[in-house]
Amino acid sequence: MRIVQLRKSRLFKLVAAALCIIPLIYIVFLQSSHEDIKFSAFSSKKVKTKPQLVSELGNFDPRNVADRTGAGEGGRPHILRDDQQNDASQTLTEFGMNMVCSDEISLSRSIPDTRLAECKHWNYPEDLPKASVIIVFHNEGWSTLLRTVHSVINRSPPQFLEEVLLVDDYSNKDHLKGRLEQYITRFDGKVRLIRNKEREGLIRTRSYGAKEARGEVILFLDAHCEVNVNWLPPLLAPIYRDKTIMTVPVIDGIDFKTFEYRPVYQGGHHYRGIFEWGMLYKENELSQKEAKKREHNSEPYKSPTHAGGLFAMNRDYFLSLGAYDPGLLVWGGENFELSFKIWQCGGSIEWVPCSRVGHVYRGFMPYNFGKLSQKKKGPLVTINYKRVIETWFDDKFKEYFYTREPLARFLDKGDISEQLALKERLGCKSFEWFMDNVAYDVYDKFPALPPNLHWGELRNVASQNCMDTLGHGPPSLMGMSHCHGFGNNQLIRLNAKGQLGVGERCIEADTQGIKLVFCRLGTVDGPWEYDETSRTLFHRVHKKCVALHPQTSHLSLMPCDTVNTYQQWTFKELQPK
Ligand code: UD2
Ligand code: MN
Asked: Which ligand has the minimum distance to the alpha carbon of residue 307?
């Protein structure tokens, strides 16, 4: 998609020139202006029309009134009084966000326009497809859910909004029962509500929403979002050009305690959605080379994957890909499933800088996974990852995942024969193709993983306790605790290149002791050696061994003493419990 940038000076020159030249050319110019408007979003031609003909949609936001002064207006943080703090912390526990704060902020509050200035000058086709905005929710707070709805209604050109479709994933909170049906009657049918008959999880609920939707395009939002100025046309335009493009807005942050609206990226930097080999979602700055493929910095660009919550797609295309894999459970991994499926089976994903949407990142997840989590053994999100990689990865890449998540080998992924059949039927390309042509920047940050030489819990022979991150994030000292056999913070891996890892983090040593640190991006090696005979863990650079202090439990490097049991360690491989 190309931008049409109308700088004022140029415009005046254009208008002046147009008024001066002979009438015949002037008439031709006017007659062609409609075509220019229609397709200018896709061509590099400069728009040759009067400014009022081009700017309406590019700035569509009749209600974002800048001078509103109420709580949270302008996206400013709203700070509660001291006597409200008790209620506030109770809602934090219940919803993962401060609902007392949210309840005091207008459902139609103004927020800062966080787009690149250039975005105001884009000109979009007038016959874009209509979208069903689908919002699935489970036990969400009232004002956050409805602020999402109001922001969509307020900031979407009505001719492109088929409906807002609310899909309740079996919530059991009173405020989401009859009161919600009653409330949405004010939207004159533009907002519809449907409900699951049992808890399905967000993934299946989205697929259900897509089936029920009436719009040509489906557009998903989480139930705690605020869409920004003119968010919709830029997401629809690439799909109008090509039905196999998924479009993704840039996600700004809304603070879960103060509801401050904060732009995620500024200064014209762009990021792509990628992943590490444990399938944690990451973002990586768009390379200069890639950025320069576009004429203007606000143009969409290709991305290997996306965060999951917010995106638009042609509805028929989504359904032709089988929607989400119905075997995925509740939450997690569906962003990869859909992304790999799209790219490998002939579609593409574009991130759209001129479409910005705020999202409340919660402090923690307030809901449990319900009955669905008991249907399968083992950690549910890892099972989802396993389903996805077993369907879409080639064998070589599967090994990277199992190296990083050794316990996943034992989990039951369920039946994926339908997914494999779909892949076959659609003639989808290999994962190697995807890595080489789309996700090539993953390797820069996360190179291929050497196999584990040892993994499991790392038990000290003298204390019989295990090395443990104790739930602390990096940088922090590693600790010791009772060996629990669940893995998690005690699951330690030593790879063939000497890197000692726990989850996505690494273990290193300095003068303070043995530490959990961020792994050096782009590297998979390290200084460690394990000797199975002496059971010592040796640091090649410092030429010392890991020792546990008998009294303090402090871990540090000491001159190697192979008969000292406080320097002896055993790796014990685990099974999922
Ligand atoms: C992120 C995504 C989220 C989803 C998830 C992985 C963003 C901003 N958010 O986590 O959309 O892709 O990763 O799966 O990219 N919900 C249900 N039923 C459930 C659980 C949740 O309907 O059983 C709803 C929930 O009310 C919310 C949406 O699903 O509207 C996403 O859930 P979340 O906000 O807890 O996920 P989030 O943002 O942590
Ligand atoms: Mn969310």
From this structure: 1
- How does pLDDT run across 465-501, given as a tens digit for each residue? 999 999 999 999 999 999 999 999 999 999 999 999 9
Give the closest residue (by CA) to ligand 1 atom 25. Answer: 137
Rounded-to-integer distance, Cα 425 and Cα 571, Å: 44
Name the residue with the closest Cα to ligand 1, atom 26.
137
Arithmetic mean of pLDDT, 128-138:
97
Pick the CATH number of 372-444 from 1.10.10.350, 3.40.1050.10, 1.10.8.460, 3.10.129.10: 1.10.8.460
Which ligand has an atom closest to residue 360 CA? 2
Q: Is 359 in the pocket of ligand 1 (CB under 6 A)?
A: yes
CATH architecture, domain defined by 452-572? Trefoil (2.80)
Whole-number Å distance, alpha carbon 186 to ligand 2 midpoint, is 26
Report the C-alpha dihedral over residues 105, 109, 110, 114, rounded to 10 degrees.
70
Give Cβ neighbours of residue 538 (< 8 Å, ≥ 6 apart).
528, 529, 530, 531, 544, 545, 560
Q: Is 169 in the pocket of ligand 1 (CB under 6 A)?
A: yes
